[in-house]
C-alpha cells in the first residue's frame, strides 16, 4: 500500500509557493489502476516510463504509438501493445520558477530546461510487462528491485 496518495514533489512545490496544506493537491498515487485512469490511459498516444533504484539513480523513456497503444490489463498491469520507438535522454534538467516566464507560454505552469548529453532512439523498444516491486527490465545488469511506494 502507498504511504500517501499525494505526490511529494507537488506537496513541496505547493509549500514553497505558500499554497495548500498537508494532504492538499491532486491525489495521484494508488496501488491499483483506477477505472477513470484506465480510461485516460487508453486514449493516450504518448507515455513516459520511468523508475528509480534504491540508490536514487533514475531513468525515463518516452514511448509513443497510436491511440490505444497502451492500456491496463487488469488493475495492476500496464501493457504496451505496440512495438514503440523510445527516445532515451540523459543529461540535466532545471526548473525555472519565474511565473512571469511561464506566463509567456499558454498553459505552462513551470518551464523545464534540458541539457541533453545523449539521445538514443530505440526501435521496437519493449514488449515486456512489469509492475511494482519487479526487476527493472531495461537495466538487466542491475539486479535491483524497485521500492514499493
TrEMBL record:
<feature type="region of interest" description="Disordered">
    <location>
        <begin position="1"/>
        <end position="24"/>
    </location>
</feature>
<protein>
    <recommendedName>
        <fullName>Pyridoxamine 5'-phosphate oxidase family protein</fullName>
    </recommendedName>
</protein>
Amino acid at each position: 500500500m502507498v504511504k500517501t496518495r499525494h505526490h511529494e514533489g507537488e506537496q513541496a512545490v505547493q509549500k514553497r509557493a505558500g499554497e495548500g496544506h498537508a494532504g492538499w493537491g491532486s491525489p495521484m498515487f494508488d496501488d491499483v489502476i483506477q477505472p477513470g485512469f484506465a480510461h485516460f490511459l487508453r486514449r493516450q498516444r504518448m507515455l513516459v516510463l520511468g523508475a528509480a533504484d534504491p540508490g536514487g539513480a533514475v531513468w525515463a523513456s518516452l514511448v509513443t504509438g497510436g491511440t490505444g497503444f497502451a492500456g491496463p490489463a487488469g488493475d495492476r498491469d500496464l501493457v504496451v501493445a505496440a512495438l514503440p520507438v523510445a527516445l532515451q535522454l540523459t543529461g540535466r534538467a532545471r526548473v525555472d520558477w519565474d511565473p512571469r516566464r511561464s506566463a509567456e507560454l499558454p498553459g505552462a505552469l513551470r518551464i523545464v530546461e534540458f541539457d541533453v548529453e545523449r539521445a538514443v532512439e530505440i526501435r521496437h523498444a519493449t514488449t515486456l510487462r512489469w509492475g511494482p516491486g519487479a526487476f527493472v527490465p531495461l537495466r538487466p545488469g542491475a539486479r535491483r528491485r524497485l521500492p514499493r511506494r
